[in-house]
């Protein structure tokens, strides 16, 4: 830059320089003026006459970067060996199994904590115990985080949480599923409230993402304390037997409070949550099968609520005749059969992804494809409690229905239900409230809904299993259907109690009255004649009829009422 002569700056060798002020710092000489080129700036060497060392060249900088990245990726070898000795893979090994080859793009690998708490001041490993980023599953974008148990036991601190926050924010912003691989001892005690604040940030983001993008949690080690809320908020939670455990309070606390000593597995193992609590959606024996199943699930899910579920080529289901269906389901209403066999006959390639297989087994929920389209299947299971609905079964089906509706997945309900489970314990445990959850879920669902009544459909259970009265779009029934307030024998016992008590031969009278009631009220045409069933179909034509119905309803649009949200009977 050039300027007036009195500015104190002049051009020298095409470079602009500014003279050093008369008052200079200690260790530098005062400027002198030469007779020639008066006013030019003079370069003053540092004390001792040494010039600063030249910066490292690019080859050296690149080498240092590569060495640091290798160190970060390799981790601590002794800690990796301990992880393997526990039968667990490392965070990066898990990501290699989960994601397409060479698709992972890591975010913030250099992140380190800022805490000075005990044991942390001089221990600041890169990544801070969680590997975060994005990759693809069968070419489709997903965001992931994998907690690294080899660093701080995977415990969550401020920096650790911030990395997960970023992944969740990016997943929502780009409309891609998020998968969390959990292997953590919980909150990092030394970081106190900052760790708790980090968890709160994760939970808030998960709630904001609910119904916007699919969320999958995979428990591959401990998941204790407040950390357990994250899998509970996810849409699907996978657990691995023997290594995964999840609870709010550990065995030591349980023993101190209750006096009962329990193991980690007894308190919060995979089978506990897969069978009793219902927190685990899917349970596997090893990590490899578990992560392969996560990939399969992703293939059935849309990336977000604005996109349709991924479809495959049509399979000709609209003309597919399946005579085996009539063989699977016995005509006698009280004879059991496995509804899974019906699912297999209806689904493309006889494949379906069952959720909560070990919990509330008297109802089945699964994702499948029919004629290439993803659908949600809900069915009563006659081999478990005769397929009766109880509280857990209603909750299981309600959550599944709500998930399918949130992500535009059509619902097919296969009905063979004798009613709700009676009893004092059921009433005290809230079966009315729990049954209302399923009723609420179906009533508010706006996706295409098809009901198929295979055999019996009695009482309130018929209503809540997506009957015409609560808004199903297409109701189909087999010739074996029985739709009534209750079964014939129960109805006769109530309606003709006095007549039976006074009869000379009560059993003969009961048999005659049951036959008459069945003929009058339980005949297959009764509901169809009154417009509550659209068609009575051949069982062998069930898959084709469903496929045709889905094609008919594929453009269904039904906006919800104008309100903030409903008040589900939780």
Short characterization:
The chain has 21 helices and 18 strands. The protein has helices spanning 58-74, 77-85, 91-98, 158-174, 193-209, 229-233, 251-258, 264-268, 270-277, 287-298, 324-328, 339-346, 391-406, 424-429, 431-444, 459-464, 488-495, 497-502, 506-521, 525-529, 542-553; strands at residues 11-12, 15-16, 105-107, 130-137, 140-147, 178-184, 215-224, 236-240, 245-247, 282-284, 352-355, 363-370, 373-380, 411-417, 449-458, 474-477, 482-484, 535-536. The relative contact order is 0.06.
What does this structure look like?
- The protein is an alpha/beta fold and 570 residues long.
- It has 21 helices and 18 strands.
- The protein has helices at 58-74, 77-85, 91-98, 158-174, 193-209, 229-233, 251-258, 264-268, 270-277, 287-298, 324-328, 339-346, 391-406, 424-429, 431-444, 459-464, 488-495, 497-502, 506-521, 525-529, 542-553; strands at residues 11-12, 15-16, 105-107, 130-137, 140-147, 178-184, 215-224, 236-240, 245-247, 282-284, 352-355, 363-370, 373-380, 411-417, 449-458, 474-477, 482-484, 535-536.
- Strands 3, 4, 5, 6, 7, 8, 9 and 10 form an 8-stranded mixed sheet that branches.
- β15, α16 (459-464) and β16 form a beta-alpha-beta unit.
- The radius of gyration is 33 Å and the shape is elongated.
Give the helix/strand class. Answer: alpha/beta
Principal-axes shape call? elongated
Strand content: 15-25%
The biggest sheet amounts to: 8 strands, mixed
Q: Give the helix tally.
A: 21
Radius of gyration, whole Å: 33 Å
Low-confidence stretches: 1-18, 22-38
Distance between the termini: 73 Å
| Fraction of residues in helix | 25-40%
* Strand element count: 18
Mean pLDDT: 90
């Amino acid at each position: 830059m050039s300027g007036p002569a009195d500015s104190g700056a002049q051009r020298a060798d095409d470079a602009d320089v500014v003279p050093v002020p008369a008052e200079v710092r200690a260790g530098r000489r005062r400027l002198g003026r030469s007779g020639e080129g008066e006013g030019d700036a003079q370069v003053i060497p540092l004390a001792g006459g040494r010039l600063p060392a030249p910066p490292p060249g690019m080859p050296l900088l690149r080498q240092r970067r590569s060495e640091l990245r290798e160190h970060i990726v390799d981790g601590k070898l002794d800690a990796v060996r301990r992880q393997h000795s526990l039968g667990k893979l490392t965070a990066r090994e898990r990501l290699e199994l989960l994601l397409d080859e060479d698709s992972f793009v890591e975010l913030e690998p250099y992140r380190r904590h800022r805490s000075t708490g005990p044991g942390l001041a001089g221990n600041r490993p890169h990544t801070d115990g969680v590997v975060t980023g994005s990759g693809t599953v069968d070419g489709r974008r997903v965001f992931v985080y994998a907690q690294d148990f080899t660093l701080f036991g995977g415990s969550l601190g401020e920096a650790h949480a911030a990395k997960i926050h970023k992944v969740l924010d990016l997943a929502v912003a780009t409309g891609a599923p998020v998968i969390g691989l959990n292997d953590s001892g919980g909150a990092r005690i030394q970081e106190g409230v900052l760790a708790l604040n980090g968890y709160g940030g994760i939970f808030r983001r998960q709630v904001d993402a609910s119904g916007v993008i699919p969320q999958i949690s995979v428990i591959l080690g401990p998941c204790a304390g407040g950390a357990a809320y994250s899998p509970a908020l996810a849409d699907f939670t996978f657990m691995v037997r023997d290594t995964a455990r999840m609870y709010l309070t550990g065995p030591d606390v349980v023993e101190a409070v209750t006096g009962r000593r329990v193991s980690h597995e007894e308190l919060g193992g995979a089978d506990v949550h897969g069978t009793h609590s219902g927190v685990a959606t899917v349970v596997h024996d090893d990590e490899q099968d578990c992560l392969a199943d996560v990939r399969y699930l992703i293939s059935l899910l849309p990336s977000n609520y604005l996109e349709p579920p991924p479809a495959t080529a049509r399979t000709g289901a609209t003309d597919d005749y399946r005579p085996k269906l009539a063989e699977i389901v016995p005509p006698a209403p009280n004879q059991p059969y496995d509804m899974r066999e019906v699912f297999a006959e209806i689904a493309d390639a006889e494949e379906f992804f069952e959720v909560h297989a070990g919990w509330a087994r008297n109802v089945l929920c699964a994702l499948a494809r029919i004629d290439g389209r993803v659908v949600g299947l809900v069915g009563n299971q006659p081999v478990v409690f005769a397929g009766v609905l109880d509280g857990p079964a209603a909750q299981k089906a309600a959550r599944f229905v709500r998930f399918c509706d949130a992500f535009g997945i059509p619902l097919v309900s296969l009905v063979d239900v004798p009613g709700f489970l009676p009893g004092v314990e059921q009433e005290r445990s809230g079966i009315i409230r729990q049954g209302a959850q399923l009723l609420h879920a179906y009533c508010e669902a706006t996706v295409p809904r098809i009901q198929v009544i295979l055999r019996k459909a009695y009482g309130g259970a018929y209503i809540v299993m997506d009957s015409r009265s609560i808004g199903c779009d297409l109701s189909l029934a087999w010739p074996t259907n029985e739709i009534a307030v209750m079964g014939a024998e129960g109805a006769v016992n109530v309606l003709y109690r006095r007549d039976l008590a006074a009869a000379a031969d009560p059993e003969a009278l009961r048999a005659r009255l049951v036959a008459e009631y069945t003929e009058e009220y339980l005949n297959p045409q009764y509901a169809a004649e009154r417009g509550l069933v659209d068609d009575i179909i051949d069982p062998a034509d069930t898959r084709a009829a469903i496929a045709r119905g889905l094609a008919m309803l594929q453009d269904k649009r039904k906006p919800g009422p104008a309100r903030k949200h409903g008040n589900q009977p939780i």
